[in-house]
Amino acid sequence: MATRVAAAAGLAVITSYLIAARLRKNSKAVKLTTAFQGKIRLPTSVTPSRYDLELTPKLDICKFDGKMTVSLRIVEDTKYIVLNAADLTITDKSVWLRSNTSRQMFWPKSVELHPEDEILVLAFEENLSLGEAVLSMEFQGTLNDQMRGFYRSSYKINGETRNMAVTQFEPADARRCFPCWDEPSFKATFKMTLHVPVDRVALSNMPIAEETRSSPKMKTIKFEESPRMSTYLVAIVVGELEYIEGHTPDGRSVRVYTEVGKTHQGKFALDVALRTLPFYAKYFGTEYPLPKLDMVAIPDFAAGAMENYGLVTYREAALLFDEKVSAAANKQRVAVVVAHELAHQWFGNLVTMEWWTHLWLNEGFATWVSYLAIDHLFPEWQIWTQFVEQTVDAFRLDGLVESHPIEVEVGHVREIDEIFDAISYKKGAAIIRMLQTYLGADTFQRGLVSYIKRYEYKNARTEDLWSVLSEESGAPVKELMDSWTKQQGYPVVSVQLKSEALVIEQSQYLFSGHGGDGEWVVPVTYCVGAYKNKMSELVRLKTSVLSTHKLIHDKQANSDSDMTSQDSSPDLSKDWIKLNVGQTGFYRVKYDDELALRLRSAISAGSLEATDRFGVLDDTYALCIARKQPLSVLLSLMEVYRSETDYTVLMCMTNVSYRILKVVGDAIPSAAKDLKHFVSNLLLPSAERLGWEARPDEGHLDSMLRGELLSALVFFGHEDTINEAKRRFEAFLKDRESPLLPADTRKVAYTAVMQSVKSSDKTGYESLLKIYRETDVSQERTRVLSTLGASCDPAIVSEALDFLLSPEVRNQDAIWVLAGISGEGRDAAWSWLKENWKTVWNRFGESVLITRFISSIVSLFSSDDKADEIKDFFNANSAPGIDRTVGQSIERVRITSEWVKYVQKEEGIVEKIKQLGG
Ligand code: BES
Ligand code: ZN
Questions:
Q1: For residues 201 and 401, what is the distance between their CA atoms, to the nearest angstrom?
Q2: How far apart are the first and last CA of the chain?
Q3: pLDDT at 891
Q4: Tell me: the pLDDT tens digits for 9-68?
């Protein structure tokens, strides 16, 4: 009899599982094996060392057959072998174990699957012989449509829809493809064999060792054996694909695989990969560990990309770039994603986290290191300035009570998905940047080189990295970093000038404005009057006085010998003082009134660098939300950014403007128009400088900025820009090659058109759908989708949301429509979500995408009543894997609600906005 594992959602399957469980209750084996249920980690009495896998995907009927023979070490006396399996059917009779030491054969007396725990328990009559053994079994599974495990993705060829078979195993879905010890610390080697139709390309982690024709229609492909690696990095792709290829300086093959006819879109990514691999090999002091690297664009893909060892998979929009259709922002995205996934080939794949608690070691590091690579490849992108956006995204999540520490306990496997968030990625990357700044770039790099050498082909925990870095630097790395990885949140450092001394005080920053008693070891940096007058100091206490005398003394000593710098001696009584220089620290700063005033003048005078201009603005904004400062202070500050030209700082301006507008729109609707006027005027000079069309020699940042500024102007109702956008859209409709609407400005035009679509005239909406339907470039499709929700008419918003569920939109792309919903559309969107919750849950509940439905829509609200209503709804419709997101989204609603009330009470704010907007 074959044992079935239930798919969590299928009612019929669940019932049959219950019946099976009831039957099992009568058998003796059950009582013993329950000891393994409800456990988070597998027992370590038996560990795998080498998997021999044979898989036969049946693309037409979406099933697969498999056979596995795995070499084991039995290290403790036991009658049981416990490993992971889910959604698989095991052929009980096929299971056997042979001891290498005793040569004895063992057949299990029971083969039990426990769907709840996703484990397979093999129970034997007697204790297994200690030492090496071989376990073998056959199994069947389904190529599912959930974008995880072993799944199907569809593509069209000559008008006919076909399936490809793809894997996505991180964090814990290898068990849906073959039974295995599916935890990152059970590293083993893998030898893969695939049986596929002769006309298909079959790829896996390693190069092909041997290819034979097994029948007129089928071939057998054997791949070379991999190095020791974790199960979540095993990968397979079978489909009709074409590739372009290049070679690294040391002769390794790098290929980009795409659907038939799209290889030209892979050139940019190939080039980035070819230049990134040697960069990392040098930086990490270790060669790329595998003989080849393939990168594949998959038409249906839940995440952005996945770093499978030697076979990196991507959604199309994260890998493919079309010179004509893609925008500068798309180009940067491709480069960043490629650099991120390749960083994992060392950080993650070669050295792997011991358990998911240390996920941030993978993701935080890959994120941080990708910036290093991009800066090397494209210095003109000023990517380290752009890095502050990562920090701010992390601040946005980590300023919530509902945040979590970087190192987090993981219970059920479903909880792992939810920690692939801004904390692991962005806070992780930000605190690494902070540590690197503190230790110095060279020391830090030497530490990484030792770390990789020491742990290659093995696993590591957070503290392992700290001890290597301490050895290298002699600094108290663990003490410093524990305060950032083991507790959630971050501090705001308040600084006051008190009789010629800088007194600082740290307290936890929370958007909600109160509570939180965290304390951190803060590597404070500051400049006085000039960037060369820079100091740093570890601050451990709640309150302390910065040792500014050192700076002044050193300076005086220097100026004695060097007459030229005499005039720039730092002077606390009048110089500007900027803390968190370059925004490399993960903390916010609150200045006293005098220091804030000096900073404003310094910004006006052009004395501050872009990152610091960004920091002053964003920190002030954050203090406003937390109701530590009135809105008028922020608005006055924004005025000094009138001649701002930096991309990242202007992005901060537009983001802050969007958020203020939302709050003022709810708090004092009558002031919204003046506020829009004010912010439009601030952005207009830069927008006019850039115009609508690219200059022949313009830089990457200007190309990206153009679209963002024009979009903001459209959003803030700037009539001339809106009309111009519509005019250019008409030209584009007549001619897709029209120079009037290049890729970088297309989204602006789509938004302008969509904003004014009403039920009474849907021409604009239909034109956009036409563009959507005719393109074969994924970035163009997502561009259209991300504007469809922008209408102010509730009926149109619902229609756009219905479209997202139609067969015309791949599940992977549905989230784009959500991202485009504006404040005006929020009620329609929320009603839609409630009505369609069952459908949405059934379609997206198994993947990480479900959380977007909640966060994108819920976070648009700003009242306590709404927060209560939303809470009730999700209490009644609670489900695994969404609790964290629901909690965070509701907290955001309450925060905005508090801010709205605060702004309503702010004295003189209406007049202030009127004066600014007039
Ligand atoms: N390891 C992740 C992919 C992943 C994400 C697997 C979530 C399982 C769950 C990959 O390295 C990654 O981080 N991809 C990012 C892109 C990156 C540039 C931030 C993504 O998918 O968005
Ligand atoms: Zn990653």
A1: 49
A2: 80
A3: 97
A4: 222 332 333 333 333 333 434 445 667 777 789 999 999 999 999 999 999 999 999 999
Ligand 2 center from residue 301 Cα (angstroms): 15
The stretch 228-248 carries a mean pLDDT of: 98
* Minimal-distance CA residue to ligand 1 atom 1: 306
Q: Which amino acid residue places its CA nearest to atom 8 of ligand 1?
A: 170
- Which residues are CB-neighbours of 554 under 8 A, at least 6 positions away? none
Q: Which of 300, 314, 340 to mutate to test the pocket of ligand 1 (most atoms within 8 A of CB)?
A: 340
- Across the range 745-763, mean pLDDT stands at 96
Give the pocket of ligand 1 (CB within 6 Å): 170-171, 303-307, 336-337, 340-341, 344, 363, 366, 420, 425, 848
State yes or no: 340 annotated in a binding site: yes
Residue 6 has pLDDT above 50, yes or no: no
Q: Is the distance from CB of 735 to CB of 709 less than 8 angstroms?
A: no
CA of 366 to the centre of ligand 1 (A): 10
What's the average model confidence in pLDDT over 520-539?
96
Q: Report d(CA 594, CA 272) in Å as an integer.
A: 48
Residue with tokens 């996703």: 118
Atom 10 in ligand 1: which residue has the minimum CA distance?
306
The beta strand positions in 389-521, using DSSP E, are 458-460, 491-498, 501-508
**Residue 253 parent element (H or E):** strand 253-259
| Strand bridging mode 189-197 / 46-58 | parallel
Extended strands (E) in 85-148: 88-90, 96-99, 105-106, 110-114, 119-123, 131-142
What tokens does 497 get? Answer: 């000038």
pLDDT confidence band for 553 (50 / 70 / 90):
low
Does 514 show up as a binding residue in the annotation?
no
* Averaged pLDDT for residues 173-188: 98
Instruction: Out of 170, 341, 472, 891, pick the active-site residue.
Output: 341
Residue (of 305, 465, 306, 333) closest to 389 by Cα position:
333
pLDDT value at 294 more than 70:
yes
761-790: pLDDT as tens digits? 999 999 999 999 999 999 999 999 999 999
Q: Is the pTM of this model over 0.90?
A: yes
Ligand minimally distant from the alpha carbon of residue 420: 1
Instruction: Examine the pLDDT at 8 and tell me if it is beyond 70.
Output: no
Ligand nearest to the CA of 312: 1
Residue nearest to atom 2 of ligand 1 (CA): 306
Nearest ligand, CA 304: 1
The domains found in the chain, sorted by start residue, are: 45-237 (2.60.40.1730), 347-485 (1.10.390.10), 491-557+570-602 (2.60.40.1910), 671-917 (1.25.50.20)
Residue closest to 896 by CA, chosen among 675, 662, 716: 662
Tokens found for residue 308 = 């499978």
Q: What is the 8-class DSSP label of residue 224?
A: P
Question: 555 pLDDT exceeds 80?
Answer: no
Sign of CA dihedral 775, 776, 780, 785: positive
Q: How far apart are CA 203 and CA 237, in angstroms?
A: 5
| DSSP conformational letter for 158 | T
**CA 149 to ligand 2 center in whole angstroms:** 18
Confidence band (pLDDT; 50, 70, 90) for 572? very high
Ligand 1 atom having least distance to the Cα of 303: 21
344 annotated ligand-binding residue: yes
pLDDT band at 71 (very low <50, low <70, confident <90, very high): very high
Task: Look at residue 449 and tell me whether its pLDDT is greater than 70.
Answer: yes
| 889 alpha carbon – ligand 1 mean position (Å) | 22
